[in-house]
Specification:
about 240 residues; mainly alpha; about 70% helix; globular
């Protein structure tokens, strides 16, 4: 084969590469779903939904995860398909919100967390507030999940987002951030109202964070509430 023929062959390979890669990814998706016990008809439905979602810039991985989770919980196939279609739409909206917040290439986990949060009542601008407050892309996903969890406990979306943004801006540790929902539940079990819980979870209320107000200090902190970074726990800091 002469040089001209080699160039045409290389061009043909390059032109066919995206389609080949897409087919390989779809094959991997189908194999993964089949390996988890999903029936062939449901696997094909998930594949079609994932293909359409990817054409809108939505990753297929979280859709596969949700399908596998639903099947493991013995959810009927028709309900799984219905839920996946709704979730794909939520992820498309969530992806747009996350990108508008400055995260140009969000991971599937961030998009899925944003979609779950929006499905739980958070608005696009509230999702953007959490994403902008995160110190890294990796922090955005758990931050969104915590905000959604707090909102689901009755604090309300605005208050939940304010608490998470405050914690992120004051660089609470990841463990402290993830502990917030369990701390809120503990306070609820002690008889505190949602408003009281929100106030107690905003130790930086009034600093340069979104709340604005005075710092309450550790002496006013109920049991189980993680201390702020300027009030480390220890024998010299009761």
């Amino acid at each position: 084969m002469n040089g001209h023929g080699v160039r045409w062959l290389a061009l043909a390979v390059l032109l066919g590469l995206p389609g080949a890669l897409a087919a390989q990814e779809q094959g991997g998706l189908e194999a993964r779903l089949s390996a988890r016990g999903l029936p062939p008809d449901l696997v094909q439905e998930v594949r079609h939904i994932a293909t359409d979602a990817e054409s809108r810039g939505v990753p297929a991985g979280p859709l596969a995860d949700k399908a596998i989770e639903g099947w493991a919980k013995h959810v009927p196939a028709a309900r799984i398909v219905q839920a996946l279609r709704a979730f794909a739409g939520q992820m498309a909206e969530a992806a747009a919100a996350v990108r508008s917040a400055g995260l140009e290439h969000p991971s599937g986990s961030v998009i899925a967390a944003a979609a779950e949060a929006m499905g739980g009542g958070l608005k696009s601008d509230q999702v953007q507030s959490v994403v902008r407050a995160a110190s890294s892309a990796e922090e955005a996903s758990p931050g969104l999940s915590v905000a959604a969890s707090l909102a689901a406990q009755g604090l309300g979306a605005n208050q939940a987002v304010t608490i998470v943004v405050d914690a992120m801006r004051h660089r609470e540790s990841m463990s402290q951030l993830l502990d917030l929902p369990s701390v809120a539940r503990s306070m609820h079990d002690q008889g505190m109202s949602a408003g009281e819980i929100g106030e107690r979870l905003l130790p930086h209320h009034g600093d340069d964070g979104p709340g604005g107000g005075e710092h309450h200090g550790d002496k006013d902190r109920p049991p189980g509430v993680p201390p702020g970074p300027d009030h480390p726990a220890g024998p010299d800091h009761p």
